[in-house]
Structures are given as structure tokens and as C-alpha cells.
Amino acid sequence: MKTMFWEDSQLVLIDQTKLPHELVYYRCKTYKDVIHAIKTMKVRGAPAIGVAAAFGMALAELEGVDLQKAGEEIKAARPTAVNLFWAVDRVLKSDNALEEALKMYDEDIETNKAIGKHGAEVIDDGDTILTHCNAGALACVDYGTALGVIRAAFEEGKKIKVICDETRPFCQGAKLSVFEMQQENIPVKLIVDNAAARMMQTGKVNKVVVGADRVAKGGIANKIGTLMVALAAKRFDVPFYVAAPKSTFDFENSIYDTKIEERDPNEVLYFGECMVAPEGTEVENPSFDIVPSDLITGIITEEGILEPF
Ligand code: MRU
């Protein structure tokens, strides 16, 4: 199942806010529709928002909008993932926005399969792998990065199990990663985020694989809570791998220069439809955190496994 596709001069996206219970598609007819889809998390995950942004540029071209202006607006949709900026800049340098977007679409799948192949080498028969958030097919065009590594190891016949952190507040682990694993019949269990350290302390997890929104000098940025998982992994000697394509890398800047997205307080105040805190509660809702390089065992890319830098 592809997260998105181009049809009748429109970008058609799975509306991920409706998963896992409903499979609903959202049709982007304008580049502003793509911006809306990214802001509201109908499409999310660094590689997926990158490719969606490229199609957004293709729509802008069809609409006759100035591409520089559309590019600036698209880049402002979410601040943390490198892929969004990388995709817009790549289209701006190309001769034809749609052709470039379609190329990036195909490349995403090939890249993820290569990440999977390299990553599967560090997965052993019998491993139980913890993952945080969703760095799966749904976070990309298909196959996934962290879940791509898990898929590849499973396809090689390794008997593995997966533990998904729920990933409050948006619950990408519960809603999306569990769903993807179940679709593939990969054994999976769901835990609350607070249980991750306990799983490692009791030997119930022996590897961690997560994705990244940014890989830069000094570490990586990924979904809020990744830092706590990495700290626990270090404490309990559990290898902690990051799977990410080169389009997520920023070789110029320090990871501490990353702009961390702050999201709507209601994501924290409510659990689904149910308000869980008193009226008027003040909230901080950072969407990402930074894992320093010394907590990372290796960065799995399409070109092989790199040392954190
Ligand atoms: O807020 P999200 O759902 O876009 O955050 C997604 C993540 O943090 C993923 O781990 C990351 O983008 C890598 S996806 C291959």
C-alpha cells in the first residue's frame, strides 16, 4: 500500500489521521492543499512530507504560481524534518517539477529497500526490537526506514518480534506502526511510552531501531521521547540504531540548531475526544527531541551503516 500517489493531476494521500480504523484518501488539488495535509498530519514522517512537498511544487507549477513563493510556503508547513527543505530545493533546481517529484517518489522506495538490506545485517534471529513513533511505509512512500529494517530482517526469515511505543501525544506507534506490523504478520506488542525502560531492564528488548527527522553534527532529531529511549538503551546496554536516508542529513549545521516544532496543546490535553487535564492547564508540546551521537550505535543509510558524527 502506497502512502500517496499522483492521479489526474492531483496528489492523493492516505489520510493518516483516520488510520487504523478507516482508510480514507485526501485529494490535494492545489499546493495549498498539500500544505494543509502536512500541517494537519494527514501526511507525516520525514520522507513522506518531503515527497508530498515535491508534488506540492508540481501542483504549484500547474497552477501557475511562482515556484519560489510556493516553495517558501511549503517549507514553512513544518520546521524540523530536513526532507521538506531538501525536496523543495531539489524541485527548484530541476527543469520540471512533476518529473522531479515522480523521480523522488520512485527513489524513496529504492532507498528504503537499501536501508532495509543494510539494517537487516544488525538484526539477529530471535531479536525483540523496540521502535518509537512510526518510521514505516506510512512515513515514506512505501517500505519505511526503521520499519524497513524490520521488514527486511523478517523477509530474510529471521524470527523477530517488535515492540511499539505508543508515542504520545499523537500515538503514531499505536495507530500506525502496530497497524503496519499486523498487516505483514510480524509479531508485535504495544507498550505505553513509560514502559520502554522497563522492557530493556528486564531483557524484553534487545535492540532499538528508530527513524530520524534530521541527522546533523552531534546527533539526530526524532519524535519526542526518542531521547528517553536512547538514554535507557545506553543504561541497559541495548544497541540503539537510527535508520535514515541521506535526504534527512544536514552536514552543515549542529543538531542543536534544529528548530523543534511546538504543536497544539490540545494534543496533550485530550486523549482522543476525552479531555484528560483540568480546564486551563498550561502545556508544553515539543514534537521532537535530540539524541546526542554518544547514545547512537550506528546510523543505517542506503549506503551502509555510518558512525554517528
Ligand atoms: O510528527 P511525525 O509523525 O511526522 O514524526 C515522525 C517521526 O518522528 C519519524 O520517526 C521520522 O520522521 C522518520 S520517518 C521515516
TrEMBL record:
Q: Which InterPro entries match?
A: IF-2B-related, IF-M1Pi, IF_2B-like_C, Initiation_fac_2B_a/b/d, M1Pi_N, NagB/RpiA_transferase-like
Q: What class of enzyme is it?
A: isomerase
Q: Which GO terms describe its molecular function?
A: S-methyl-5-thioribose-1-phosphate isomerase activity
The answer to keyword Transcription applying to this record is no
Alphabetically list the UniProt keywords: Amino-acid biosynthesis, Isomerase, Methionine biosynthesis
Q: Where is the active site?
A: D213
SUPFAM superfamilies documented for this protein: NagB/RpiA/CoA transferase-like
Q: Which Gene3D superfamilies match?
A: translation initiation factor eif-2b, domain 1, Translation initiation factor eif-2b, domain 2
Q: What is the protein's given name?
A: Putative methylthioribose-1-phosphate isomerase
From which organism does this entry originate?
Methanobacterium veterum
Q: What is the lineage of its organism?
A: Archaea, Methanobacteriati, Methanobacteriota, Methanomada group, Methanobacteria
Gene transcribed to yield this protein: mtnA
